[in-house]
Amino acid sequence: MDTQSQITETLEKLVDLRKVEKHFQSTMNQLDESYQKLDELHDILEKEYQDVKQIEGLSMKSLFHKVLGSKEDQMEKERQEYLQASLKYNEFKKTVELLEFERDLIKKKISDVSLYENKLIELKKKREKELLMSNSQQGKELMRIVHLIDNSISRRKELMAANQAGKEAAHFIKLLLQQLKKAKDWGSWDMMSNNRNSSYHKRGAIDNARDLSYKSKHALNRFQKELYDVGEKNYNLDINIGSFNTFMDVFFDNLISDWVIQQKIKNALHNVDGVYDKVMRLMQSVDHQIKKVDLELIELESVKDKIILNG
To answer: Whole-angstrom Cα distance, residue 169 to residue 255?
Structure first.
């Protein structure tokens, strides 16, 4: 049997197995609902049984005060309700057992799905090689599609690298923004407090921001490089934070130095916030390109499959 005939045969088998798979899923859904219903019927059965036990334990005087009628009449009524609940429960239990049997039977059949899927993959690879080696029109068209797929896969890889670099840059910039927001009222704090602990925390926020600015710049440079690789050249990513000076407590806590530092921090915060927005917009652009390439790949793979399966 030639490769194309084997592909046709395997495809037909897979179509049948897919139907079995759908039936299996439907059976599983029925079973889930049936287990829930069976639990409900079991609860009703247990309640009716307890009602019978309760009536059996009542004296005639207690029964008279509790309900109208004789103990025998009440017992008969409760027994009938218990019998009815028991019949319903047992009947439904049989239904569940049949569904479980059907599930186990189908499960054995669908275990062959992966076997035939792998077989089809291998046959398609074999047929693809046959067509590529031939000098037929189908072989030439397949060659063209394969090249387009390779290009799309390569572009997607570059986009994913840019996406990862963008995430890293956004992460550090977000941390930097948090530290700058902590430090932005530094001047106001200094005018209100000379507490050493307060000054320590203020200097810490500035030092953390300075450290994060280096990491952010490094991450942005990497992001920029990855974006150039995918052809996104119309942007300017730069953080001009400048140097943050750490002052010694009270000696430098005057109105002028406070105002200068506060303005520097606010300017830096505004600048970094703008860069963060730019990075997020670029990330959206990259994500859009990834989705676009994914759709292209799906379409190209579909065309390739048609050529191979019908070749």
So the answer is: 36
Could you read off the pLDDT of 245-290 as tens digits, one per residue? 333 333 334 434 555 667 777 777 888 888 888 889 889 989 998 9
For residue 209, report the phi and psi dihedrals to the nearest 5 degrees: -65, -40
With a CB cutoff of 8 Å and minimum separation 6, the contacts of 61 are none
Rounded distance, CA 311 to CA 213, Å?
58
Report the amino acid identity of residue 227: L
- Which tokens go with 56? 């059996």
Q: In a 3-state reduction of DSSP, which class is residue 194? A: coil
pTM of the full structure: 0.54
Cβ atoms of 268 and 241 within 8 Å: the answer is yes
What's the CA gap between 152 and 157, in Å, rounded?
A: 9
Give the angle 153-158-162 at the CA atoms, nearest 5°: 145
Residue 135: pLDDT over 80: no
Q: Cα separations (Å) of 162 from 151, 222, 234?
A: 17, 8, 15
Each residue of 56-79: b (16+ CB within 10 Å) or e? eebeeeebeeeeeeebeebbeebe
- Euclidean distance between CA atoms 127 and 111, whole angstroms: 26
227 vs 154: CA distance, rounded Å? 14
List Cβ neighbours of 49 (8 Å cut-off, separation of 6 or more).
82
pLDDT digit string (tens) for 8-63? 778 778 878 888 888 888 888 888 888 888 898 888 888 888 877 776 665 544 54
Predicted pLDDT at 194 = 52
Q: Are 255 and 191 in contact (CB under 8 A)?
A: yes
Considering just the CA atoms, what is the radius of gyration of the chain in Å?
37
- CA-wise closest residue to 265 among 140, 181, 148, 153: 181
Nearest alpha-carbon partner for 241 in 172, 168, 164 = 172
Other CB atoms within 10 A of residue 130 CB: 17
